[in-house]
Amino acid sequence: MKIVQGDELQWERGLEYRGGIFHFRRLMEGEPGTIDNFQLSLGKMSGEFFSPRHRHNFEQIRIQIKGTLNYARDGKMTEGIVGYFPEGMAYGPQSQDPDSEPWGAVLQFGGASGSGYLSRDEVKAGMGELSKVGTFSGGIFRRNPGEPGKKNLDGYQAIWEHKNGKAMVYPKPRYNHPVLMDPANFAWVETETKGVSEKLLGIYSERRVEIAVTKIDAGASFTCAAPTVFLTQSGKGTVANQPLREFTTVWVARGDRVTFKADETVELLRMGLPDLTGLDGAKRHTFAQAAE
Description:
It is a single chain. Helix content is 7%, strand content 38%. By secondary structure, the protein is mainly β. It has a 7-stranded antiparallel beta sheet, with no helix packed on it. Strands 2-3-4-9-5-8-13 form a 7-stranded antiparallel beta sheet, with no helix packed on it. Strand 15 and strand 16 form a beta hairpin. The longest helix has 11 residues, at 120-130. 40% of the residues are buried.
């Protein structure tokens, strides 16, 4: 179990290979080199930030905190919208009002194919190495004349192939577009625990990625014992005797138990990671993967 106070973290520069400016707070990370690695980050971007239409060999859960992101044919994420972005599925391009500064949280993790997830640090290192033989612009890596390899590649794919020394093979998509959900239109359903209710937004793939909003009434408690990442959206209380406030992030690993106590009504975004038990390399520490 791990707890991070998101409002105490510094902003870092990231996604330099995209157009525009992007900063993030690293809220929670898993174990690099394993296929069930993950990272949750809080991000904000300048209005000119741009991401071309592309796909990943990992998965994402996104929540829009401020502003609007436009994914063209795939729809818009306005404030409060939660999105599930499956592996292997192309989406975007992503853009926004040039005069805005949208905020959002993104959980990235290895999906059902067992392809894993590469950490931001590994991606940054790979970008630095590739910058010696080419340039990143608008999300595309372009090799310098005379350098071996494909001339133009998606930035993510170029980093992955450089790190792994082989061509990337994307998993076949299980879904043909992102799933965008508006929690405001879901009803609260009481759980077996008094004072705790939930909005179940969905369960995805055969590995059961689960997304829900959990509400704990003032004075009530909630205990979780599953591989889950929680992001506090509102309210105050405690978790394992630490303060619970906006952007408090909690990782409950397999075999752990943690109890939330609400002093006032608390709402948590609950993101259950996929169960990858039995997949080849489930705890292998030499695996590398593309990110972003």
